[in-house]
Design goal:
Largest sheet: 7 strands, mixed
Strand order of the largest sheet: 5-2-1-6-7-11-10
Structural class: alpha/beta
Number of helices: 20
Helix content: 40-55%
């Protein structure tokens, strides 16, 4: 009969094997996700069952769980677990789907949230099954050859090193995704659309119920509106406050039904389709159906990733089209029937004009003005908005941009590890230009990922922009000292306000983004370089498709302090794990000596 110390040591050893077994299976799951997941996607694509995880989150979740389960099952079989144990563990991996898929269908969670929750819930589900068969997982089990043991330990060390920075990155990226199109806090507000002039062509900028990209929508709107030659409206399925990316809430001028009534059943002459969030499939389907039925008779302008909606509506089939350089490869994959082209600001294909990314919308919209009003009007509009890159009658070429390693590292650092990113209040004032508003939100909240922007007004009331759009705030300046690290005041004509002065006296820094003379985004990109770093400002300009060389960007260089954060987090996690391992092993070796019977 073993002594008490020997039994205790054996017990500790068995639980050490349990923990090691758990770690092995986590590594096997991750390997399955990376290797088998890629292979499964390739096989499904080869047989024509191609899909996007963003558009079909249920299929994407099933694929992920299947790949992770197969990797884990293969390792369990290698370790000589019974088939019953393997099937039980696989069932536990699929169990979270039973809860999450109905929530996804009901709209309670997004596709991205479902994927994140699956990764989290699968681990406790696996632990529960292991505890249920504790004896099986605490005894020495199955062969582990020296090479496999060394590989397993290496992967375990790597996993432990990545665990903490991975968790921090997951939390940061999830917060970023939530903030992009977070629902408006004010759900009811009214807007007064401009008076309709039947002698002018009508142009509409479409916004989904889930929102739209702020630069795509507002850039085209102001370029059209500044000509004075169009009836310009923002339209949406419903007429209620809708989020533009980055924290600015727009009240559309008209719903789809109200537009039809105003035009007496006629179709608009110009329909502008900006990028919209991928998360709400029903909203995208509604917008796509409306575009197909209503916009196909006039001139369609797809802006940036809005080309995806136009392609889904079938309006780009057999045509030349372009889109943002970062998204176009995915569109080629999803819509091979379209002849996608790179390196050009817009493509005019008759009744469809498609633009590159974001600020290429200026040139695409000026092309609309050229065709429907004239070259002189387009030239005057370009001058009015400060666009220096207008090329009359033809589309300018673009550099063949691609994601570099430096871009990817900077993106990862900004989106995942700026936990101290400032919250910036953007002060809305009556008469502010639409481009000026886009410049105050887009470079900060979307492309630098280094600040959370929130629309505020002095008194919490809605404001009207220069050309009549209605925006509602999410906060007031009375809360500035408690909630904001900085205030940005966009608009060349913006002037000090008593509430702004009060915030400054309370210690809140205030920056007036005065953009004249020049283009509205110039001042914003310079501010990003000065307050964050120059590489982030250049990345923002690259994504915007805006030349940065002539801006004179100055500020901090590469964010080395930020780059050290994931490294230090990984080392800290590894140190804790190694320290815990050392303590456990030390306890195992000392306990028999302490409990040994005294010699006689």
């Amino acid at each position: 009969m073993p002594a008490a110390g020997e039994a205790d040591t054996a017990g500790r050893g068995s639980w050490w094997r349990f923990a090691w077994h758990f770690l092995e299976m986590v590594v096997a799951m991750l390997a399955g996700m990376l290797v088998l997941g890629a292979a499964l996607s390739a096989v499904l694509g080869a047989v024509g069952w191609d899909y996007s995880h963003a558009e079909h989150p249920v299929l994407g979740s099933l694929e992920m769980v299947l790949a992770m389960s197969l990797g884990m099952a293969a390792w369990m079989r290698y370790r000589r677990h019974s088939r019953v144990s393997i099937l039980e563990m696989v069932a536990a991996m699929f169990a979270p789907l039973v809860v999450l898929v109905p929530l996804l269908w009901a709209g309670a969670v997004s596709g991205a949230t479902t994927m994140a929750l699956l990764h989290v819930l699968m681990l406790p589900a696996m632990l529960i099954v292991m505890l249920r068969r504790r004896e099986e997982y605490t005894r020495a089990h199955g062969p582990v050859r020296p090479a496999a043991r060394a590989l397993g330990r290496g992967l375990a060390v790597l996993l432990v090193f990545l665990l903490v920075p991975g968790a921090v990155y997951a939390a940061g990226s999830a917060a970023y995704a939530r903030n992009q199109y977070s629902p408006p806090e004010i759900t009811t507000a009214t807007a007064t659309p401009p008076v309709h002039d039947p002698g002018k062509p009508t142009a509409v900028v479409v916004v989904g119920n889930s929102g739209a990209n702020i630069a795509d929508a507002l850039v085209s709107y102001e370029v059209l509106a500044v000509t004075g030659a169009f009836n310009v409206y923002t339209v949406a399925p419903e007429r209620r406050p809708l989020p533009l990316l980055g924290g600015l809430d727009l009240v559309p001028d008209l719903s789809f039904a109200q537009l039809e009534q105003r035009l007496s059943g006629s179709d608009p002459d110009v329909t502008v389709v900006p990028a919209m969030p991928d998360s709400d499939a029903s909203d995208r389907a509604m917008v796509t159906s409306w575009i197909r039925d209503t916009a196909s008779e006039g001139l369609l302008l797809s802006v940036c990733a809005g080309a995806q909606l136009a392609a889904e509506a079938g309006l780009l089939d057999g045509r030349d089209a372009t889109s943002h350089w970062y998204r176009i490869s995915g569109f080629e994959h999803d819509h091979p029937e379209v002849n996608w082209r790179r390196g050009i600001r817009y493509i005019d294909d008759g009744d469809v004009i498609s633009t590159g990314g974001l600020l290429s919308a200026v040139d695409g919209t000026l092309r609309v003005v050229e065709r429907l009003v004239g070259a002189d009007a387009a030239r005057a509009a370009a001058q009015a908005v400060g666009w220096r890159y207008y090329t009359p009658g033809r589309a300018a070429t673009l550099p063949q941009s691609e994601l570099t390693l430096g871009d990817a590292v900077l993106y990862t650092l900004n989106i995942g590890f700026r936990w101290d990113a400032p919250t910036v209040g953007v002060v809305l004032t009556d008469g502010v230009g639409e481009l000026e508003l886009a410049a105050a939100f887009d470079p900060y909240a979307e492309h630098s990922m280094a600040a959370r922007t929130v629309a505020v007004t002095p008194d919490g009331a809605a404001v009207r922009s220069r050309h009549g759009l209605t925006f509602v705030p999410r906060d007031t300046l009375a809360n500035a000292s408690d909630r904001f690290d900085r205030l940005l005041v966009p608009g060349a004509a913006a002037s000090p306000h008593p509430a702004i002065d009060a915030a400054r006296r309370d210690g809140v820094p205030v920056e007036f983004l005065r953009s004249r003379p020049g283009f509205a985004f110039d001042a914003a990109l310079r501010d990003v370089a000065r307050t964050m770093d120059v590489p982030t400002a250049r990345w923002a300009a690259k994504v915007l498709e805006y030349p940065a060389d002539g801006l004179g960007l100055s500020g901090p260089g590469w964010p080395w302090t930020l780059a050290l954060r994931p490294l230090l987090l990984g080392l800290a996690g590894l140190a804790v794990a190694l320290g815990a391992t050392w303590l456990i092993r030390r306890a195992r070796t000392r306990r028999p000596v302490e409990n040994a019977a005294p010699s006689t």
